Amino acid sequence: MTDNDSYRHKRDPHYIKAKKEGYRARSAYKLLNIHKRFKIFKRAFYILDIGSAPGSWLQVAKQYAERNMEKNNDSHYSRDHFKIMGADLKHISPIEGVKVVRVDFRNPEFKDQISEFFNNKKLDLILSDASIKKSGNHFSDHIQQIKLCYKVLDIAKRFLRVEGNLVIKLFQGPDMKVIKEDLKKYFRFVKVYKPKASKNKSNEIYVICLKKI
Ligand SMILES: C[S@@+](CC[C@H](N)C(=O)[O-])C[C@H]1O[C@@H](n2cnc3c(N)ncnc32)[C@H](O)[C@@H]1O
Fold first, then answer.
1. pTM for the whole thing?
2. Nearest atom within ligand 1 for CA of residue 133
3. Which of 34, 89, 169 to mutate to test the pocket of ligand 1 (most atoms within 8 A of CB)?
4. What SS3 class is residue 45?
């Protein structure tokens, strides 16, 4: 980040709001925008967040999981506890009641960690804000990010419950159509969405996949 970028970042309204509301990053508002529009946290108790550092999505996930425990104590699908796991290459400072692991999520050992933590139970929601290290070449970044997304899809295919939801970050580009079509094979509803809190100059976009088949 240049000095100018850093100055602009600190004046960013979402950055200021995040500081005030105790979120670790302004990205929290992207996830809140996504939930407001798609209700992804509805009855979500078992949640996996891939690419979690510094942890603002984990903070949001925990808030909704706690709320779900109070709200959804009825005869429909519900659980009497929640489990949330966050994974990142980088260190994530602890969050009470949330399991964090430092791992490359593409490593086979990560699948064992998921099975063990969730006791071989299926998950309600998988989030991925994981992003490749950008090279500056838009096309190659777009392709590399798509490859990362297919790895997330592999995890969702194995661990997400039927009717479960998935959110994945992409960088816009020509192959978005391809991955969107692939995701449609596994989810009843697939929608590309740019949250308000995502900066206009950023080409990031989220694919919201609802109701796993
Ligand atoms: C945009 S940040 C996530 C921000 C997070 N959602 C939050 O709100 O605090 C993207 C993260 O993806 C992580 N990441 C990228 N590739 C990864 C991989 N293969 N395994 C684990 N984490 C990865 C990066 O280390 C980075 O911390």
1. 0.95
2. 15
3. 89
4. coil
Any bridge partners for residue 128, and if so which?
50, 168
Q: Mean pLDDT over residues 47-65, rounded?
A: 98
Q: Which domain holds residue 194?
A: 3-212
How many structural domains comprise the chain? 1
Q: What's the gap in Å between 126 CA and the centre of ligand 1?
A: 14
**What local confidence, expressed as pLDDT, does residue 3 receive?**
66
CA of 76 to the centre of ligand 1 (A): 34
Q: CATH code at 60?
A: 3.40.50.150
Specify the DSSP element, H or E, that contains 31. Answer: helix 28-38
